[in-house]
Design goal:
Chain lengths: ~475, ~375
């Protein structure tokens, strides 16, 4: 057997292995879809009722502290705070944590809400960087502003958790637009007696939507193609990627942009990890670990109907940084919590979630790149046929595309955010275009995450925000 | 080169892809169409109900027209109109809907094996319930779906039955957190019905968790007749029960309450002493000023805080007592008195509020804005 023959055989074997990997991975996702269908139906049935409206008129719902870390948000901070203060919920407070902004964020708040400084008398339950002052508002009694030195988002959230008075805290980015009834909907599992320790809502893309007073009044597809291509990604991630996990021991990710937590458990685990670049992901894994180690029954579900809208990066540079950071964070988190792997005390987290995230999420870009390269090499040296390459593309891309389409079927059968024919057509078009070029770019960005994780990079990189004004139509 | 299995897979997947795209379009247009037809149907149903309420249509005629519509529309009409109407008009809507075919089918739907159908029926019956539905409501209160149970609980407003109140009370005792709060809130709204049930249970129960719920409920209902049944629990062996009793007593401003709370100020547990002090402040027990002054020297910080706040709440005499505390006698009592004297009204209100997930109050944590001004 000559060298070429051996090479052909090796390339062919790699291609077949990659093919089976994608078939297995996408089949796992298909299983998640199958699991998310009854879960979506259940949530949808519970969501379309007036029981919550009735509970609005009583003191039954637990009070909530909404935490908003803000860094250089001078442009949007006032509108954001007003939007959070006017959320429909019987009893909630808003805590803005100014994380050492270098612009006039604190000045805008002082001016607009008539803030006055109050001496600190808050037990510091979590260590944070130095807090410069606490402010109360003469105009909004439910507003507390914590002004602190810069320590990053996790540090700001920890300061907010310390300052919170209520047993539930909602962590929301200052540039996230929470739907008016989202808190009510997030509180539903608590009302139904579920042992929830954390729960998340659905994040959708605000670019292109009609926005008034920092609130989305008309969901629309983004005008920018790059932002629009992220819509099917978000739908896929939230409507089956995460809802499906509700039925397999709970979620491993609650988005940092919008999630609700039991404050006592957050304090028990020491709050957010300030050294992590994906503090939200790390926090949920530690919550799972804590609850499993103590043997307390719990759930960490994703509730699909409470919606928060966020600005998707509309330029390649910012998007690349975001995806690189997400993947780097995933790698670091998996490495940090590798001791949970296949340990019976962690139940499905150790036996299903973490193996899936390592094999299916973390290694996916490596395998996908290998697949593309070896397919090209295989065709060039005659190791594989064009038919095989076609089957490979169908398994890697076509199967994935079909799953995304099913996520949209689920969305259409339940919440139907994009009702206008134009938006629906654009959503469908973006779904079909996503595997052709965009997906390969994300593979490259995610691979860079491996490199930076290896180098020990800890920075977030500059995340350019364009603000609500530019997103408004 | 390619395994047969993969070829089958490729062909199957191609077919499935086409089916998915077709399903997507079909779902989209089907649901858009359904939304439109439902909106039209709802508008027609609204118009019929309005005509009936304006007495331009007889009940029989309106019912005959409403019978054409599906359960979705009639349920929407029920919830929409009952939320916006009151008194006679609301009763007229109940009578109108009770004559429809949908209403007659509701008990059957409520016994469906599918939880979502039971949920819909439970929502409708809890609003429209008639005495003949009492047994059914009991069954729904024990349903295995929490959403169904929660909906059924609201029937107490419509069906003032002591049996239903007792069942709801049992359910409240068995539940936790926000669910328990919700049930307690429903029970509180029917206070005349609930007070005798609480009375009976308070004197019969030995279970501490049940007693905690009952004492909280007694506090919320605040019926003076309950005081006699609350006071004995202030001497309970259980710390949790004594805490609940000390908290509950704040709803019964009476000399007997004051005496009991003054006794609790010397309880062996600081949690009880702190709650007793807070309750004395809330009932404005002037006669307890001396006891509260002594409690200001308590070794526990929370007891000193609650006693100082209580003295401020009692009125000018209490404030005078706070001002009279001297640093030479007790430095800690003096510091606390100075701290509380400087609190603004907002912070005082926050101190009296506070919240925990199970609704117990006041919380033993400082409010976020607890600061001297």
């Amino acid at each position: 057997m000559d060298v070429i023959q051996v090479l052909r055989q090796a390339v062919h074997s790699v291609d077949v292995a990659v093919l089976w990997y994608f078939l297995a991975l996408n089949s796992a996702y298909a299983l998640l879809i199958a699991l998310s269908v009854p879960e979506m139906f259940k949530q949808w049935q519970e969501a379309t009722n007036d029981d919550l409206e009735r509970s609005m008129r009583s003191d039954a719902l637990p009070p909530i502290s909404v935490l908003m870390p803000a860094y250089n948000m001078e442009m949007n901070i006032v509108a954001s705070v007003r939007a959070q203060l006017t959320l429909r919920y019987p009893h909630h407070e808003v805590i803005v944590i100014n994380d050492g902004s270098t612009d006039d964020t604190i000045g805008r708040l002082i001016q607009e809400f008539d803030l006055y400084e109050v001496p600190p008398a808050i037990p510091r339950r979590l260590p944070t960087s130095h807090v410069r002052g606490y402010y109360r508002s003469r105009k909004a009694p439910d507003l507390l502003v914590v002004d602190k030195e810069n320590g990053g988002k996790a540090d700001a959230l920890n300061a907010g958790i310390s300052a919170a008075r209520f047993p539930l805290v909602v962590c929301a980015d200052a540039d996230t637009m929470i739907a008016a009834d989202a808190l009510l909907r997030l509180a539903r599992p608590f009302l139904l007696g579920d042992p929830v320790v954390a729960s998340g809502g659905t994040i959708r893309i605000a670019n292109g939507c009609q926005i008034q007073h920092a609130r989305v009044t008309g969901p629309r597809m983004p005008k920018s193609w790059l932002a629009a291509l992220q819509v099917p990604e978000y739908l896929r991630a939230f409507l089956f990627g995460r809802v499906g996990w509700n039925r397999v021991g709970g979620n491993l990710i609650i988005s940092g942009a919008f999630g609700i937590f039991r404050r006592d458990y957050l304090i028990d685990i020491g709050g957010y990890n300030t050294g992590s670049v994906v503090e939200d992901f790390d926090l949920i894994i530690r919550l799972h670990r804590h609850m499993r180690e103590l043997g307390i029954p719990y759930s960490i579900p994703l509730i699909p109907d409470p919606v928060a809208w966020t600005e998707a990066p509309p330029d390649f540079k910012t998007l690349a940084r975001q995806r690189e950071r997400w993947h780097r964070g995933l790698i670091v988190a998996m490495a940090t919590h590798r001791d949970m792997l296949f340990r019976p005390r962690y139940g499905p987290i150790g036996f299903v979630h973490i193996p899936f995230f390592i094999l299916g999420e973390m290694l996916a870009p490596v395998v996908e790149l290998a697949g593309y390269l070896f397919t090209i090499i295989g065709i060039a040296i005659g190791a594989i046929s064009w038919a095989f390459a076609g089957v490979f593309l169908l398994a890697a891309l076509g199967y994935g595309l079909m799953l995304t389409l099913w996520a949209i079927v689920l969305e259409q059968a339940t919440f139907r955010m994009y009702r206008r024919p134009g938006d629906f057509a654009r959503l469908l078009l973006c779904t079909l275009l996503e595997p052709l070029g965009y997906r390969q770019l994300t593979v490259l960005w995610r691979l860079k995450g491996f490199w930076n994780a290896w180098r020990g990079t800890e920075s977030w990189g500059e995340m350019k925000r364009y603000g609500f004004e530019t997103a408004e139509t | 080169m390619i395994p047969k299995l993969l070829i089958y897979f490729a062909v199957g997947q191609g077919v499935l892809l086409v089916v998915t795209v077709i399903a997507l379009f079909a779902t989209h247009w089907a649901f858009v169409g359904r939304d439109y037809s439902r909106a039209v149907e709802l508008e027609r149903a609204r118009s019929i109900v309005r005509q009936y309420l304006a007495r331009r249509m007889l009940a029989v005629e309106a019912q005959a027209e409403l019978n054409v519509f599906g359960s979705h529309t009639l349920a929407a009409i029920l919830h929409e109109f009952t939320a916006n109407q009151s008194g006679d008009e609301r009763e007229a809507i109940y009578q109108l809907l009770q004559g429809t075919r949908w209403y007659r089918k509701l008990p059957d739907i409520a016994r469906s094996r599918f939880w979502w159908r039971r949920l819909r029926a439970s929502r409708a019956i809890s609003t429209l319930a008639a005495p003949e539905h009492l047994l059914l409501m009991h069954a729904l209160l024990d349903d295995r779906s929490p959403a169904v149970r929660l909906s059924a609980a609201t029937a107490l407003e419509r069906l003032p039955s002591p049996g239903l109140a007792a069942a709801l009370l049992e359910r409240a005792v068995a539940s936790h957190g926000a669910e328990r709060n919700h049930l307690v809130e429903i029970l509180v709204q029917s206070e005349t019905l609930v007070a005798p049930v609480i009375t009976a249970r308070l004197s019969q129960t030995a279970d501490n968790e049940t007693l905690r719920v009952l004492l909280r409920l007694a506090s919320r209902v605040g019926d003076p007749a309950l005081l006699t049944y609350v006071v004995p629990h202030a001497s309970s062996e259980s710390l949790e029960v004594r805490i609940a009793a000390a908290t509950a007593l704040r709803s019964f401003p009476h000399p007997q309450t004051s005496n009991t709370l003054r006794r609790l100020l010397t309880d062996r547990a600081w949690e009880v002493r702190a709650r007793a002090a807070a309750s004395l402040g809330i009932i404005g027990a002037v006669e307890a000023i001396g006891d509260l002054e002594m409690a200001l020297c308590d070794p526990n910080w929370w007891v000193r805080l609650r006693s100082a706040i209580a003295l401020r709440l009692v009125g000018p005499m209490g404030v005078e007592a706070l001002r009279a505390v001297q640093a030479e006698i007790d430095r800690y009592a003096f510091d606390m008195a100075q701290y509380v004297l400087c609190l603004d009204e907002g912070v005082m209100a926050e101190y009296m509020g506070g919240a925990t997930l199970d609704g117990s109050s006041p919380s033993m944590t400082a409010p976020a804005s607890a600061m001297a001004s």
